[in-house]
């Protein structure tokens, strides 16, 4: 056989092999739903003592993916870069206590709200801080690029706080509060109540909150097809009682919005 003929056969063989791999990979990806999460956001999405990712949003997402005929794959991400991760296609959804805001609506598509929340102030139990105005002159911590930061920015007290320290996750912020490097932490109420239940007698939540909010699931702009399929699955989970069961498992009551 001539050398040119041999080369031609090799090229054709390589093309067929690559095409086969591409088709296989595409089919595999179509059956998966890659979900970007903050794996330090208990009780919605976090790691248990065995390092497994668990939580309300995790169970809810798995149930929704099953309704859609897909497998949920959970991808811990840098929460500060969540919208960039979605836009790039590295994840299909942002789903882990993701607050619906007007600013975020310009970057992603949202499902209907599924949980209510608010931003609250957590202090040590023996703290003299009793309300928002008492944060003046204090050192306050919060998760970077979170709705806690948005809530604080919208409140006049922001200009009177001595220092605002940003953390990659809420666990680190609460750890610094526990060691008194912070005077208070602004945090999602659903997360705060979980940690209060885990460390009774350590923290307290002030009665005065900063902002009510709603959680939704973020989908890449332009992907209305995925948004509609996901919303249909969520509606089915509500109607067949699955969502209520998952909520009772993690919250002790049905908190899912209908």
UniProtKB/TrEMBL annotation:
InterPro entries: Iontro_rcpt_C, Solute-binding_3/MltF_N. The lineage of its organism: Bacteria, Bacillati, Bacillota, Bacilli, Bacillales. SMART domains: PBPb, PBPe. Residues 32-254 form the Solute-binding protein family 3/N-terminal domain. One of its GO terms (molecular function) is ligand-gated monoatomic ion channel activity. This is Amino acid ABC transporter substrate-binding protein. The keyword Signal applies. Residues 32-253 form the Ionotropic glutamate receptor C-terminal domain. Residues 220-247 form a coiled coil. Residues 1-19 form the signal peptide. Keywords: Coiled coil, Signal. The keyword Coiled coil applies. GO terms for cellular component: membrane.
